[in-house]
Amino acid sequence: MAEAYRGVIGAFPYAFRHGDSLFFRLYVVIGTLAAAFVGGLFTFALIVWIGETASAPGGSLTLSRTFIAVLGLFAAGPLLAPTLLVARKHRKGLSYHPRYDTIMAALGFAFLLSLYLAAIISMPESFTLDGETVTRPPPSGLFAPIIAVLYAIPQVGALAPPAGSMGLIAAAHYLLSR
Protein backbone atom coordinates (compact mmCIF):
# COMPACT_ATOMS: atom_id res chain seq x y z
CA MET A 1 0.00 0.00 0.00
CA ALA A 2 2.78 2.46 0.89
CA GLU A 3 4.80 1.85 -2.28
CA ALA A 4 2.90 4.51 -4.26
CA TYR A 5 3.40 7.15 -1.55
CA ARG A 6 6.63 9.03 -2.23
CA GLY A 7 6.84 12.11 -0.03
CA VAL A 8 4.63 15.17 -0.02
CA ILE A 9 4.09 15.31 -3.78
CA GLY A 10 3.07 11.65 -3.93
CA ALA A 11 0.62 12.16 -1.07
CA PHE A 12 -1.88 13.95 -3.30
CA PRO A 13 -2.47 11.20 -5.87
CA TYR A 14 -2.26 8.65 -3.04
CA ALA A 15 -4.95 10.47 -1.04
CA PHE A 16 -7.08 10.80 -4.17
CA ARG A 17 -6.87 7.07 -4.90
CA HIS A 18 -7.37 5.89 -1.32
CA GLY A 19 -9.93 8.45 -0.12
CA ASP A 20 -13.11 6.94 1.30
CA SER A 21 -15.54 9.45 -0.18
CA LEU A 22 -16.18 11.23 -3.44
CA PHE A 23 -16.49 14.49 -1.47
CA PHE A 24 -12.94 14.04 -0.18
CA ARG A 25 -11.63 13.30 -3.68
CA LEU A 26 -13.27 16.50 -4.87
CA TYR A 27 -11.52 18.35 -2.06
CA VAL A 28 -8.14 16.87 -3.02
CA VAL A 29 -8.50 18.42 -6.46
CA ILE A 30 -10.01 21.76 -5.41
CA GLY A 31 -7.88 22.13 -2.26
CA THR A 32 -4.66 21.44 -4.14
CA LEU A 33 -5.54 23.90 -6.90
CA ALA A 34 -6.59 26.52 -4.33
CA ALA A 35 -3.34 26.04 -2.39
CA ALA A 36 -1.32 26.43 -5.59
CA PHE A 37 -3.29 29.58 -6.47
CA VAL A 38 -2.92 31.10 -2.98
CA GLY A 39 0.75 30.16 -2.89
CA GLY A 40 1.23 31.78 -6.29
CA LEU A 41 -0.51 34.96 -5.15
CA PHE A 42 1.74 35.28 -2.12
CA THR A 43 4.83 34.47 -4.20
CA PHE A 44 3.96 37.22 -6.68
CA ALA A 45 3.16 39.61 -3.81
CA LEU A 46 6.58 38.90 -2.32
CA ILE A 47 8.31 39.45 -5.67
CA VAL A 48 6.48 42.76 -6.18
CA TRP A 49 7.26 43.87 -2.62
CA ILE A 50 10.94 43.04 -3.03
CA GLY A 51 10.98 44.92 -6.33
CA GLU A 52 9.36 47.98 -4.80
CA THR A 53 11.67 48.03 -1.80
CA ALA A 54 14.91 46.80 -3.40
CA SER A 55 16.73 50.13 -3.04
CA ALA A 56 15.74 50.59 0.60
CA PRO A 57 18.00 49.36 3.41
CA GLY A 58 17.10 46.24 5.43
CA GLY A 59 15.51 46.32 8.86
CA SER A 60 11.75 46.56 8.98
CA LEU A 61 11.44 45.95 5.22
CA THR A 62 13.19 42.62 5.62
CA LEU A 63 10.74 41.77 8.38
CA SER A 64 7.77 42.70 6.19
CA ARG A 65 9.10 40.51 3.38
CA THR A 66 9.34 37.61 5.78
CA PHE A 67 5.85 38.39 7.06
CA ILE A 68 4.42 38.05 3.54
CA ALA A 69 6.08 34.63 3.16
CA VAL A 70 4.79 33.47 6.56
CA LEU A 71 1.26 34.65 5.73
CA GLY A 72 1.47 32.65 2.51
CA LEU A 73 2.37 29.53 4.48
CA PHE A 74 -0.48 30.12 6.92
CA ALA A 75 -2.89 30.52 4.00
CA ALA A 76 -1.76 27.62 1.81
CA GLY A 77 -0.69 25.14 4.50
CA PRO A 78 -4.12 24.49 6.04
CA LEU A 79 -5.55 23.99 2.55
CA LEU A 80 -3.15 21.08 2.12
CA ALA A 81 -3.49 19.72 5.66
CA PRO A 82 -6.69 17.66 5.18
CA THR A 83 -5.23 15.90 2.14
CA LEU A 84 -1.91 15.20 3.83
CA LEU A 85 -3.53 14.02 7.06
CA VAL A 86 -5.87 11.63 5.25
CA ALA A 87 -3.02 10.29 3.11
CA ARG A 88 -1.00 9.65 6.27
CA LYS A 89 -3.90 7.84 7.94
CA HIS A 90 -4.39 5.54 4.96
CA ARG A 91 -0.69 4.95 4.36
CA LYS A 92 0.05 3.97 7.95
CA GLY A 93 -3.19 2.01 8.32
CA LEU A 94 -4.08 3.93 11.48
CA SER A 95 -7.51 3.63 13.03
CA TYR A 96 -9.77 6.63 12.58
CA HIS A 97 -13.41 7.66 12.54
CA PRO A 98 -15.37 6.12 9.60
CA ARG A 99 -16.24 9.59 8.29
CA TYR A 100 -12.74 11.04 8.85
CA ASP A 101 -12.09 11.70 5.15
CA THR A 102 -15.44 13.43 4.61
CA ILE A 103 -15.16 15.56 7.75
CA MET A 104 -11.62 16.65 6.91
CA ALA A 105 -12.75 17.58 3.40
CA ALA A 106 -15.64 19.64 4.80
CA LEU A 107 -13.25 21.43 7.15
CA GLY A 108 -10.89 22.06 4.24
CA PHE A 109 -13.71 23.69 2.28
CA ALA A 110 -14.60 25.68 5.42
CA PHE A 111 -11.01 26.94 5.58
CA LEU A 112 -11.24 28.02 1.94
CA LEU A 113 -14.44 29.92 2.78
CA SER A 114 -12.72 31.48 5.81
CA LEU A 115 -9.97 32.85 3.54
CA TYR A 116 -12.65 34.48 1.40
CA LEU A 117 -14.32 35.98 4.48
CA ALA A 118 -10.94 37.27 5.67
CA ALA A 119 -10.39 38.93 2.30
CA ILE A 120 -13.76 40.70 2.57
CA ILE A 121 -13.11 41.79 6.16
CA SER A 122 -9.63 43.09 5.39
CA MET A 123 -10.68 45.13 2.35
CA PRO A 124 -10.04 48.83 3.06
CA GLU A 125 -12.74 51.42 2.37
CA SER A 126 -10.52 53.04 -0.23
CA PHE A 127 -7.09 52.37 -1.66
CA THR A 128 -4.82 53.70 -4.38
CA LEU A 129 -4.36 51.62 -7.49
CA ASP A 130 -2.10 52.97 -10.24
CA GLY A 131 -2.38 56.48 -8.80
CA GLU A 132 -6.17 56.36 -8.75
CA THR A 133 -8.28 56.14 -5.58
CA VAL A 134 -10.61 53.17 -5.65
CA THR A 135 -13.40 52.58 -3.14
CA ARG A 136 -14.70 49.17 -2.22
CA PRO A 137 -18.00 48.24 -3.80
CA PRO A 138 -21.10 48.73 -1.68
CA PRO A 139 -22.85 45.56 -0.55
CA SER A 140 -25.59 44.51 -2.93
CA GLY A 141 -27.53 41.44 -3.91
CA LEU A 142 -28.69 38.50 -1.88
CA PHE A 143 -25.74 38.51 0.52
CA ALA A 144 -25.69 42.31 1.06
CA PRO A 145 -26.57 42.09 4.79
CA ILE A 146 -23.76 39.58 5.39
CA ILE A 147 -21.27 41.65 3.40
CA ALA A 148 -22.28 44.78 5.34
CA VAL A 149 -21.60 42.99 8.64
CA LEU A 150 -18.23 41.78 7.35
CA TYR A 151 -17.32 45.32 6.23
CA ALA A 152 -18.15 46.60 9.73
CA ILE A 153 -15.63 44.28 11.40
CA PRO A 154 -12.25 45.96 12.04
CA GLN A 155 -9.55 44.84 9.60
CA VAL A 156 -7.59 43.03 12.30
CA GLY A 157 -10.66 40.81 12.72
CA ALA A 158 -9.79 39.24 9.37
CA LEU A 159 -7.46 36.92 11.26
CA ALA A 160 -10.32 35.31 13.18
CA PRO A 161 -12.02 33.20 10.45
CA PRO A 162 -8.85 31.46 9.18
CA ALA A 163 -7.43 31.03 12.70
CA GLY A 164 -10.69 29.55 13.94
CA SER A 165 -10.90 27.27 10.94
CA MET A 166 -7.31 26.09 11.45
CA GLY A 167 -8.20 25.33 15.05
CA LEU A 168 -11.22 23.31 13.93
CA ILE A 169 -9.08 21.25 11.54
CA ALA A 170 -6.57 20.51 14.31
CA ALA A 171 -9.27 19.69 16.86
CA ALA A 172 -11.17 17.45 14.45
CA HIS A 173 -8.01 15.58 13.52
CA TYR A 174 -7.19 15.04 17.17
CA LEU A 175 -10.70 13.96 18.18
CA LEU A 176 -11.40 11.76 15.17
CA SER A 177 -8.04 9.98 15.37
CA ARG A 178 -8.68 8.56 18.81
Automatic annotation (TrEMBL):
Residue ranges of the TM segments: 26-50, 62-81, 102-123, 143-176
Keyword Transmembrane: yes
Residue ranges of domain DUF8056 in the record: 1-176
UniProt keywords, alphabetically: Membrane, Transmembrane, Transmembrane helix
Keyword Transmembrane helix tagged: yes
Protein name: DUF8056 domain-containing protein
Source organism of the structure: Halonotius terrestris
Superkingdom, natural source: Archaea
Database matches in InterPro entries: DUF8056 (IPR058369)
Pfam families recorded: DUF8056
